[in-house]
Amino acid sequence: MTLSGATLWKQVLAKLPLIAILRGVAPREAVAMAQALSQAGFLCVEVPLNSPNALESISELRRHFAGRLLVGAGTVLTESEVVAIHQAGAQLVVSPNTNPRVITAAKGLDLICVPGFATPTEALAGIAAGADALKLFPAESASPEVVRALRAVLPASLPIFPVGGITTANMAAYIAAGAGGFGIGSAIYSPGTSADIVGHRAAMFVKAWTVKGPHS
Question: Active-site residue 46, yes or no?
């Protein structure tokens, strides 16, 4: 039986809340990269829509990894894009911004939705619209102290995922401040990276979360 997106999302949060961002991946290599990530222990993969033929990559990933990986689309900016990624098989919507219309459209299609935010106002707007988690973006401009301050006013049950500049070296400080997971991009994959290297890098992030994460 193929697991629903909601069930897979619960597994991601419980076991390994790391989202691998394959920005720039091409359809011909998407499956190989996702296989390397899966073998390292990752449970969630995101293909940003500004990647070449992103919808094709999403379809291939959903076909090959249904029930094993939560397949997401990133850089989702419009309601029409929500519909398109849903038709391609995406189960997760990730955005760089907080657009209540995008969140409403995603939830109307039973998709997991993680909008981006940079201020408390945006965070609260995302929550009000039905976000399942919040993407703190760009994390380079938000220190762990910012995460700690946000955790004092945002619902404790809602995960905050710092995204942007996340490495195995800076994860611990964000976790201690209350981060519930991370989106990881170029530190794992950039165009031209081999699947072997992606798998090696992914394993290092899995180890870092296992050692430093709140469930360790």
Answer: yes
